[in-house]
Amino acid sequence: MSRPTGLRSLSHGLRVVAAAAALTLLTAGSAQAATVSQAEASAIQIAALSTPLIPSSDATNDGSVPTVTDSLDGAIPLFPGVTLTNTGVYSQTAVAGDDGTSAACAGIAGNGGALSVGDDGTCSATTAGPALVNLPSFAVAGTGFRFRLEASSLYSYCTAGPADGTSGFSAGSTLANVTLIAQTVILGIPGPEVRIPVNANGSFSIPAPFSSVISLDVNKVDTTGPQTSATALHIGLGPNSSIASIDIGRSVCGDNALTADVPGLPLTPGGIATAAATVAVLGGSVYAGRRLRKDQAAAA
Question: Which DSSP helix (H) or strand (E) runs through 153?
Answer without folding.
Answer: strand 153-160
